[in-house]
Amino acid sequence: VVDPPEVSLSAPAPVQSPPPQPEITKAEVQPVPGAPSETVADSAIPDVAVIQTLALLRREVEQCTACKLAESRTRTVFGSGPEQSDWLFVGEAPGQQEDRQGKPFVGRPGSLLTQMLLALGQQREQVFIANALKCRPPGNRDPLPEELRACEPFLLKQIELVKPEVMVALGRISAQALLNSDQSLAKLRGQVYRYGPDNIPLIVTYHPAYLLRNPADKGKVWEDLLLANRQLPG
Ligand code: URA
What we know:
By secondary structure, the protein is an alpha/beta fold. The chain has helices spanning 54-62, 69-72, 96-101, 108-119, 145-162, 172-179, 185-188, 208-213, 218-229; strands at 87-91, 128-131, 166-170, 193-195, 200-205. It starts with 53 loop residues before the first helix and ends in a 5-residue tail after the last helix. Mean pLDDT is 88; it is low at 1-6 and 10-37. It binds uracil.
């Protein structure tokens, strides 16, 4: 396992066993209906109800013009991973390098995510990696509510098709979107949520880009990942 220059999760500082976690069970966390939007008409929201494969869904994403990000993107970033995976990670949105290459998490935060996965004993190719947005917001600004709303059907369909045993929201934006919450990441992490009709365990943790800036929090991320790992069926 290679140590990244700034932050290594493969050899984390001795992590004390996390204190017993209150496993908060939400009977069902409803997917985000999203705030009413003036800039994305309901008729523009992608209808992916009949799509039954990731390949067809990818094609829909490539052709999507539901929000203005379609005008500024170089490439859509669908996500990566097998047709079905135990793990599904949800990031925020493509950055500059992802926009150029059409792949998620290929920049420095992506290298750290790869290290995080290796520390969990997972090859990157074995897990599904998606983003809340499939197109890059110009200048890497935060996604707008209407952009998240327009893109949400794609993420929901990915979750439906990949059928993960556990989901990890990377960072505030994806956590808030998946949980339909406006709470801070610090408040949201450290719990097990139950997502959607299948009650998929959902854990929230810091975004790898945040961790690059705040390496002191790597122990918290490691705790979150171990909590996620414990949700997998024996
Ligand atoms: N940050 C994200 O949230 N997703 C990416 O794909 C790249 C950086």
